[in-house]
Amino acid sequence: MTPLFDLAVIGSGVVGCAVFRESVLAGLDTLMIERAPDLLAGASKANSAILHTGFDSKPGSLEQRLIRAGHREYLAIHERLGLPLLKTGATLVAWNDQDLAQLDGIDAAARQNGVSLHRLDAEGVRRREPSLAPTACGGLVVDEESLIDPWSAPLAYAQQAVVNGGVFLRNSPVASGTYEDGAWTLRLEDRGEGEKTVRARVVVNCAGLQGDIVEAIARSSPFTIKPRKGQFIVYDKSAYGLISSVILPVPSPVTKGIVATRTVFGNLLVGPTAEPQDDRDVAALGRPQLESLKAAGERLLPSLARHDITATYAGLRPATEFSDYQIEALPDRGWITVGGIRSTGLSSALGIARHVRGLYEESFGRCRPLADPLWPRVPNLTEEFPRPGFQPDRDDIICHCESVTRAEIRAALSDSPLPAGCIGGLRRRTRCMMGRCQGFYCTRRVVELAAPYLPELATLGPGGAA
Amino acid sequence: MNHDVIIIGGGPAGLSAARHLLASGVRDVVVIERNPECGGLPRFCLHRGWGALDFGRLWRGPRYARALVEAAAGATFLTNCAVTALEPDGVVRVNTPGGPRTLRARAVLLATGIREMPRSARLIGGTRPWGVMNTGAFQEMVRFQTLPFRAPVIIGSELVAFSALETARHAGLRPVALLEENSSLSVPAIVGAAARLRYQVPVRTGCRLVEICGQDRVEAIIVEDNGARRRLRCDSIVLSGRFVPETALVDGRTILRDLDGTRGPVIDNFYRCTDPRIFAAGNVLRGVEHSGYVAHEGRSAAAAILRALRDDLPPSRPAIAVEGRNLRYVYPQRIVPSDGKTMLFGRSARGAGGDLVARDASGRELARRSVGRFAWPRLTLEIPTPDVETCDALILEREHSGQ
Ligand SMILES: Cc1cc2nc3c(=O)[nH]c(=O)nc-3n(C[C@H](O)[C@H](O)[C@H](O)COP(=O)(O)OP(=O)(O)OC[C@H]3O[C@@H](n4cnc5c(N)ncnc54)[C@H](O)[C@@H]3O)c2cc1C
Ligand SMILES: Cc1cc2nc3c(=O)[nH]c(=O)nc-3n(C[C@H](O)[C@H](O)[C@H](O)COP(=O)(O)OP(=O)(O)OC[C@H]3O[C@@H](n4cnc5c(N)ncnc54)[C@H](O)[C@@H]3O)c2cc1C
Question: What is the value of pTM for the model shown?
Answer without folding.
Answer: 0.96
